[in-house]
Design a protein that fits this description.
The chain is 25% helix and 28% strand. It has 366 residues and is α/β, with parallel strands linked by helices. Its EC number is 3.5.1.25.
C-alpha cells in the first residue's frame, strides 16, 4: 500500500520541502528545493557498518542475539547494518557466520536489515588488540575463502603487517569484500600501500599506529592517503577536534557505532566475545579501563555530529549515504525513487518520531 510523508526531505540533490511517497521502495519525492530545512526532517535510514551488539545481546552469541541487536538499533534509526565479530577461535567465527546467514534468511520484521558480516579479525596485530580477545593470528587467505561459503561477508578488518605477500588482500579483492585496516602497528609505507589499493580504515585513531610530524603510522597514512574511514562519534573514543580533523582530511569519513551489548541498556555487566565488559557513564570498558566498543546508537551519533558543528544534511549523509557508498550499495542510504524505503522522521530536537524500514513502520508516529 502506498503511503506518504510530508516534511523537509533530504534527497541526494539537497533539501526538498514536499512529499515522499513509498511502498517497500520510494516511488517519488515531489516538492521545491529549500536552503534552510524546517522540522519535521525526513532523512535516509542510518547504515551502520560496525556493530557488535545491543539490547543486552552480543553478536557472537548466535542468531537470536543478532535479531535482538537488530531490533534495538532499529529503534534508534539504524535500518541496515553489518553484524561484527570479535577476534575468536576459528570454530566461534564459523558459528558467528552461520548465525549471520540464518538471520539474513529469516530477518526480524521489526529490526534493521542485515547486510552481511563484518569480520573484525582474527588477522590483527596481537600487540594492538585494544579490547579484542587474544586470538589474533597471521592472515590466512584460504580460511577467508572457506568463510565466504558460510555467509555474505561485506567487510574484513585486518592488520596489513599480518598479511605477508598481500595474499589476504588479494583474496578480499577477488571476493569483493571491503578491506579495512585496523588493530595495526604498521608503518606509514605499509599503510600507504594498502590505502592506494583501495582499503578503508576501521575506527580512525583508535587501535592503530599514530600520526606525528615524523615516524607516522597507519593514522598518518590515513590522513595523507585515505578515502573512506570509519569514526566513532560518541565523544568518548574521540574528542570533537579529532573528528573535525578527520573530516577535513578524509573525504568519505563516516560514522559507526561500534556498539556492544550495553547499547540501549542500563549500566551493568555485559559480554563482548569472551570478555566481560562494564557499562558506566555512557562507556563500555574492560576491568582495566580499556574502552571496549561503545554504547552508542546512531540517533545519538547524529546529534553529536550536529552538536560539534556539522550541518544536519552532512551529518545525516555521513551516517547513511557514505557508508552505503563504501559498501557499493546504491539502493540504501538515500531518499530517491527506486531506493529501499528506509526513512526516518525527526522533530526539532532531532529526536526520532518515526522509523520506516523497507516500507514498514518500526517506530510509529507519536
Amino acid at each position: 500500500m502506498t503511503s506518504h510523508i510530508d516534511g523537509s526531505i533530504l534527497t541526494p540533490g539537497g533539501w526538498v520541502a514536499g512529499r515522499l511517497t513509498h511502498d517497500a521502495r520510494i516511488d517519488s519525492v515531489e516538492g521545491d528545493g529549500m536552503a534552510a530545512p524546517k522540522p519535521p526532517y525526513v532523512l535516509p535510514g542510518f547504515v551502520d557498518c560496525h556493530v557488535h551488539g545491543g539490547g543486552g545481546a552480543d553478536m557472537m552469541e548466535g542468531a537470536e542475539a543478532i535479531r535482538t541487536a537488530a531490533r534495538l538499533h532499529a529503534q534508534h534509526g539504524t535500518t541496515a547494518f553489518c553484524p561484527t565479530s570479535v577476534t575468536a577461535p576459528i570454530e566461534d567465527l564459523d558459528a558467528f557466520l552461520d548465525a549471520v546467514a540464518t538471520v539474513m534468511a529469516d530477518p526480524p520484521k521489526d529490526g534493521a536489515w542485515v547486510l552481511g558480516a563484518h569480520l573484525e579479525g582474527p588477522f590483527l596485530n596481537p600487540d594492538k588488540l585494544g579490547a579484542q580477545p587474544p586470538f589474533a593470528r597471521p592472515a590466512d587467505a584460504e580460511q577467508l575463502r572457506a568463510w565466504t561459503k558460510r555467509a555474505t561477508i561485506r567487510i574484513m578488518t585486518f592488520a596489513p603487517e599480518m598479511d605477508e605477500g598481500d595474499a589476504l588482500f588479494d583474496a578480499l579483492t577477488a571476493a569483493e569484500i571491503r578491506a579495512q585496516l585496523g588493530h595495526s602497528l604498521c608503518d606509514y609505507a605499509q599503510g600507504k600501500a594498502a590505502l592506494e589499493r583501495g582499503a578503508g580504515i576501521t575506527h580512525l585513531f583508535n587501535a592503530m599506529s599514530g600520526i606525528a610530524h615524523r615516524g607516522n603510522g597507519l593514522c598518518g597514512a590515513a590522513f595523507a592517503h585515505g578515502d573512506y574511514a570509519e569514526i566513532i562519534p560518541d565523544l568518548i573514543h574521540l574528542e570533537a577536534g579529532a573528528i573535525l580533523a578527520g573530516r577535513r582530511a578524509i573525504p568519505n569519513l563516516y560514522g559507526v557505532t561500534d556498539a556492544t551489548a550495553g547499547a540501549g541498556m542500563p549500566d551493568g555487566a555485559y559480554r563482548l566475545g569472551s570478555y566481560d565488559v562494564q557499562k558506566a557513564y555512557g562507556a563500555m570498558r574492560l576491568a582495566d579501563g580499556t574502552l571496549a566498543g561503545s554504547a552508542l546508537t546512531m540517533d545519538v551519533a547524529l546529534r553529536n555530529l550536529v552538536g560539534i558543528g556539522l550541518p544536519l544534511d552532512e551529518a545525516a549523509r555521513r551516517l547513511s549515504t557514505v557508508p552505503a557508498d563504501w559498501l557499493g550499495l546504491s539502493d540504501i542510504g538515500r531518499l530517491a525513487p527506486g531506493a529501499r524505503a528506509d526513512i526516518l522522521v525527526l522533530d526539532e530536537t532531532l529526536t526520532l518520531t518515526r522509523v520506516i524500514s523497507g516500507g514498514h513502520d518500526i517506530l510509529t508516529p507519536r
